[in-house]
Specification:
Oligomer: single chain
Radius of gyration: 29 Å
Distance between the termini: 85 Å
Number of helices: 8
Largest sheet: none
Number of strands: 0
Length: 237
């Protein structure tokens, strides 16, 4: 392919040594690979920043509510703790549970075992929805971490192929002829690892945070249903 060979020859002739220049002088296919990896990096860091904020806030805001649910003797005190905490998955569970309890009992009345089972089921459903919401985007982060090294490797293999075409064009296999093309090709592998390493590290970290938050919701579910079983729903009336 004469066009690609001439590109490699021009790159070796104008080799300037710094990384920015090597990217500019790289083969068009390698440039395309670098562009794809750059786009992946933007999406990856966007997910990382969003999930860091969301999951850290969800975990920290849940602890005061869990402590209040374990100690509170009335729904009024528990509601005060929920209002102070701010929005988080455990707050949504509290709202779902109170809504279902209000529907079943109205303004008063005893809480039957069948009602408790119904409330527990709604809380479990709400917990599953919140867990799915917290996990949204992590699959794409995992895909980026898995695919980026291979995309970078493809760019490297293509760049090395271009270097060998350059050898055939120039008719010389000395280091000065081969090194520029190989250097430019290896940038693609480095870029792939640069994108993949943060993605896989944060994916594992966020997965553990989702598990912690899901555990918090499960703990609240148990405490809330036990509170209803003890008659706390009517303790302030």
């Amino acid at each position: 392919m004469p066009g690609l060979a001439s590109t490699a020859y021009a790159a070796s002739a104008n080799f300037r040594g710094n990384i920015g220049a090597m990217i500019v002088d790289a083969d068009p296919v390698v440039k395309l690979v670098m562009l794809v990896l750059f786009i992946f990096s933007i999406f990856s860091w966007g997910i990382i920043i969003q999930k860091w904020t969301m999951l850290s806030r969800a975990r920290s805001r849940a602890w005061p509510i869990l402590e209040a649910a374990a100690r509170a003797m009335s729904m009024t005190r528990l509601k005060e703790a929920v209002e102070k905490a701010g929005e988080c998955p455990v707050v949504h569970l509290f709202e779902e549970g109170m809504d279902e309890a209000a529907r079943l009992t109205g303004k008063g009345g005893a809480m039957s075992q069948a009602m408790l089972v119904n409330i527990d089921a709604r809380l479990a459903n709400a917990r599953a929805r919140q867990t799915m919401h917290l996990s949204h985007g992590l699959g794409f982060l995992a895909s980026i971490s898995n695919a980026s090294p291979f995309i970078g490797l493809f760019g490297t293999v293509w760049g090395i192929m271009d270097s060998f075409r350059n050898i055939a064009l120039v008719g010389s296999a000395n280091l000065a002829t081969v090194a520029p093309g190989i250097s430019e090709a290896l940038i693609a592998t480095a870029a792939g690892l640069f994108v993949a390493i943060p993605a896989v590290l944060f994916y594992n970290y966020f997965t553990s945070l989702v598990m912690v938050t899901s555990g918090q919701m499960e703990q609240f579910q148990v405490d809330f249903v036990n509170a209803l079983r003890r008659g706390m729903i009517n303790a302030d009336k």
